[in-house]
Specification:
Elements: E1 2-5, H1 20-33, E2 38-41, H2 54-71, E3 76-79, H3 83-92, E4 96-99, H4 109-113, E5 118-122, H5 140-157, E6 165-168, H6 177-185, H7 187-191, E7 196-198, H8 205-209, H9 219-231, E8 234-237, H10 242-257
Parallel strand pairs: 1-2, 2-3, 3-4, 4-5, 5-6, 7-8
């Protein structure tokens, strides 16, 4: 799942493509590198970030989605927590909804989500602005799994087909390093609920393991976490670096298959 940030402020500066032409070019490059689908977002959800008005989010993502729908056959997901943006993106060609609020942020989002081919429900403690202020759990794996199970039920109750839903444990979204590592080691628990989407690419928890590694230095750690995630049950990896991740996974698969 190739990340296309139509934003001026996402945490990984090299992924920022605020101009539509830049975003489309990046997306097509990710497609050439082997992405299976493209995830287009117009609002940063980095720790401490503020929400963007729906009108601005639409201005950022709609031209990109429209262009990609014409120029590639890959599925396109829209990364948003707003029903208006989701509906407009679907009309422009997006077939997958990726909502970091798990359909909780906007009252109209549950119904809108049922109109997409696939829906990703992610766990987050708090909001992007507050989520890293002393996150706390008694049992992070059990609590995240319970939350995702309840959101799957809410989606089904709204008329959605649960077989079209995926779950994301929300690495880095209201978690300490210890919480993130526990979730990564227990991805099978979430795979029992639905196919797992995992986003570890260049995230700040890696710099807690390798001190002073800024986003531009975290590719090796990202690849290690991605491979571990794939081995432990992740069905989809959300990444900035498609070619490098695909190569790492192919080598891992060959080693696993060797007699």
């Amino acid at each position: 799942m190739g990340v296309v940030n139509c934003t001026p402020d996402s945490f990984f500066a090299s992924s920022r493509t605020p101009a539509a032409e830049e975003a489309v070019a990046r997306a097509l490059r990710l497609a050439e590198e082997g992405a299976d689908w493209l995830d287009v977002g117009g609002q940063s959800t980095r720790p401490g970030s503020e929400a963007v008005p729906a009108e601005e989010e639409l201005r950022r993502v709609l031209p990109v989605i429209e262009a990609l729908a014409r120029r590639t056959k890959l599925p396109i997901s829209v990364d948003t927590d707003k029903a208006l943006v989701a509906a407009s993106a679907r009309g422009a060609g997006a077939s997958i909804l990726n909502d970091v609020s798990a359909l909780r942020g906007d009252p109209a989002m549950l119904r809108e989500a049922t109109r997409f081919d696939r829906v990703i429900l992610m766990h987050m403690q708090g909001t992007p602005r507050t989520m890293q202020r002393e996150p706390s759990y008694d049992d992070v794996v059990a609590e995240v799994a319970d939350f995702l199970s309840r959101r799957l039920e809410a989606f089904s109750s709204a008329g959605g087909d649960a077989s079209r839903a995926l779950v994301d444990p929300g690495i880095g979204f209201g978690k300490t390093l210890e919480h993130n590592l526990s979730l990564l080691k227990r991805l099978e628990d979430f795979a029992a609920l639905a196919p797992v989407v995992l986003g570890v690419s260049r995230k700040s928890f890696l710099s807690r393991i390798v001190p002073d590694a800024g986003p531009q230095d975290r590719l090796p750690g990202s690849l290690a976490a991605a491979v571990l995630g794939a081995l432990h049950g992740a069905a989809v990896l959300r990444v900035h670096d498609v070619a490098a991740t695909r190569q790492a996974l192919e080598v891992c698969a060959a080693l696993e298959a060797a007699s």
